[in-house]
Design goal:
This protein has 299 residues and is of the alpha/beta class. It has ten helices and ten strands. It has an eight-stranded mixed beta sheet, with helices on both faces. It has a two-stranded antiparallel ribbon with strand order 7-8. Helix 3 (121-136) links the parallel strand 5 and strand 6.
């Protein structure tokens, strides 16, 4: 496929009705088995979350010869919104399974399968996709997952907070609140990345915000137990959107009881949007290395 139309910072239709960003490195000799990485952003961000200058997963993947697609989830970018009743973690997972089949048909040539990277709500959706794929036999091989910005439990006060927001289809997070929620301690990120990341900001479907604080805690054990592919998991100790602690991260790893390999750790001195912090480059290299290992194991 000619990738000249897929420039940094530019979104186009990439899978079905979904927009997003694509980087497909050129072919080379003696390349290792490759994954097709598909990245799912969290709430209040578009696919550009993975393509912010200085913190770009797409750049990191391309530099390492790995093809990558970052999707605009339903209701973000120019991707069509789902009805509120389907704009849930499970509903989006069901919808995105079909989009991933299209990704595989379009971009999967020469790769061993799809490797999902999910952040925050996108991570919960990625986990749900993997759980559904274990029994749905999708038309693509799923190699593994890398999850961040999520854990087992949201603070109980968040549910009434999100439910009390105006009864509108989408919700926009005010700038100062977003910095407080998404960024970690001073010194854990370069100040310029705050402004640079604003290019990825977007209103979030209210239904998905309410759903993640209403159903994920109850559904997480069964969802994680159903996953049967390797999982890389990193979570910030300073993430205010989740109940955090070493016991929570250990519990998340234990819940992945049927995954053949789990690499889980809590990380200090970073924030919810780990990619935007000093730790972000390390995180992305770890995720991509894990994806490459999964591709080699599938060879």
């Amino acid at each position: 496929m000619n990738t000249s139309s897929f420039q940094p910072g530019h979104a186009a239709k990439v899978a079905g009705d979904l927009t997003g960003r694509v980087r497909l490195p050129g072919s080379g000799i003696n390349r290792p088995p490759l994954p097709l990485v598909v990245a799912l952003h969290g709430g209040t961000y578009t696919s550009r979350y993975f393509d912010v200058p200085g913190a770009s997963l797409l750049d990191c993947a391309a530099a390492n010869g790995i093809p990558v697609v970052a999707l605009d989830r339903p209701g973000y970018g120019a991707s069509p919104a789902l009805p509120a009743g389907q704009s849930t973690v499970k509903g989006q997972a069901t919808y995105l399974l079909k989009a991933l089949e299209d990704c595989w048909q379009r971009y999967g040539e020469g790769t061993r399968g799809i490797f999902l990277i999910g952040h925050s709500i996108g991570g919960a959706i990625a986990a749900s996709i993997a759980a559904q794929a274990a029994s749905a036999s999708p038309a693509f091989p799923l190699l593994g997952l890398a999850l961040s910005g999520m854990c087992l439990k949201t603070p109980p006060e968040h549910k009434p907070l999100w439910e009390s927001l105006p009864d509108t289809p989408t919700v926009e997070m005010p700038g100062p609140v977003k910095v407080q929620m998404m960024f970690g301690p001073a010194g854990s990120y370069h100040p310029a990345i705050v402004e640079a990341s604003q290019a990825a900001d977007a209103p979030a479907p209210k239904a998905e915000l309410v759903d993640i604080v209403s159903t994920w805690t109850a559904n997480a054990p069964a969802t994680l137990a159903a996953i049967r592919v390797p999982v890389h998991y990193r979570q910030s100790a300073q993430d205010p959107l989740w109940i955090m602690g070493a016991a929570e991260v250990d519990g998340f790893a234990r819940a992945l009881e049927n995954s053949p390999r789990v690499d889980a750790a809590m990380v200090q001195q970073t924030g919810h949007c780990m990619d935007f912090h000093h730790y972000g480059h390390s995180l992305q290299l770890q995720q991509l290395a894990f994806a490459l290992q999964c591709a080699c194991e599938a060879a």
